[in-house]
Amino acid sequence: GNRYVPGDSSLAPLPPQVIFEGDSLRHTNQDQDLHDLMALDNGPDGKPWFQSKLIGPGETDMVPVEGLKPGVYSYTCSIHPFMGGRLEVRKRLEPQEPAPDHRVDSGENYFAPKTITVVAGSSIEWTNVGRVGHSVTASDGSWDSHPTCPTPGPCHMPGERYRRTFTEPGTIRYYCKLHGTPGGTGHAGTIVVVPRGDPPSSVDSLFASGGPSVVSVQGSASFGGELPVAVASDPSGDAPAAAAADRTGLDLTGASVYRADPSLPHLTFEWRLAALPDAGIPEAVRYSLPFRAGSQRFVVQAKRTNLTGTTIADDPAGHASAQPRFQLLGDCTESTPASCRHIAWLDGHVDLAAKAIRAKVPFGIRPEIAPGATLERATGSVARLTRIEAALEAASTTIAADDAEWGGANASFAYTIASPVVRLGIAPTGTPEEQVVFSTTASVGTDGGFTGGIATGDLPRGTYDVWARACFGTNCGATKRTLEI
User: Fold this and answer.
1) What element of type H or E holds 406?
2) 17-20 vs 80-90, strand pairing mode
3) Of residues 166 and 16, which shows the higher confidence score?
4) Distances 468 to 106, 215, 295 between C-alpha atoms, Å
5) Tens of pLDDT along 113-141?
């Protein structure tokens, strides 16, 4: 009795009742006497800032506090002045949007950084730091910061921000509709989205020092896994009709090669299909991916049988399996695919959700297959030694097949097996990353530490940005430090 909760007669030991601007306050009498709730101080009109009605036991009244400004107000009961309490009114803050995970500047006419690697689920915010309008537009048209730019508008104007979250792993190209092209020329950029749990490569620390001839650089880097690198693509729906068999699993849409994890010593080969049966690899379909490394030609295969017949029972003893089999063949000659010699059975799996079949080829299984080595399309006149295939066969005879050319229209395409690399560059302060020439390769240790030097003898005195870019294949991250030379 005769006290407020929260509060007491000293107005100090207990914390105040906290409300926000515009909130209402209800006063309930739980005592046996009459009470009200009245501000000790007066407002500009000479009356208490607020005062409720006198209410009896068990009654409730609303205290008129909705118009109070932020601050702390002491109050009492008009007929029991030894009662007291405090009320704190706080400013109501507008909900704040969380900071973006990454920021990109859009200027005249560049995106900086031009290429950015992010983890799936990350947000990117573009800020127009230039003097004219631009846009941030996906090259495939799937999203656009300003769909009506330039006519009738508006566009992404100076100082304006645009934010987007990327949830699916992959490589995304984008451009400014006013000053770039979907093909990547001019005002254009690239986003590499890596799976969550497989972080982007990054330069974690960077130190630069030196004089007029050489800048010494050291730091540390972390390396994330590489996204699949497409080596072939094929239209969906162009697979030939398969005689007396289900064509599901025969419609090849593409193939990739990549090193999924810097810490694991193997290379992943992947076939992508328009659809796969629930059982995974169809029994009589063989998937092959031929390639050349150095002077040697190899073929990676995925299959359930050795395909001398259309059923497991027809397959030679020792080769039949109810589970998928993954195989590396080598020492191939141009005369016939049968000339390829079995090298090893491989680990692999079928990903029904992604409609993909993957085989893992260990490093060192042959000296030509190692980090830093280059893989490319095999040459020759035998199609099955030069083309990526999904082939339905019986008794070693192809009934139907869908294939794709390594590199497609870019016949000179080659893939280099990823290894951790840090490259260094130097440019006048403020130069966008895409204009920096990373001409020096640093020495990288097993722990990610790196050291290197950049020759600066021809540079005039001034302020420069020293850059380091850490890459594991297509997964890259960069940072810079400013240095006076």
Assistant:
1) none
2) parallel
3) 166
4) 21, 12, 34
5) 888 878 778 899 999 988 899 999 999 99
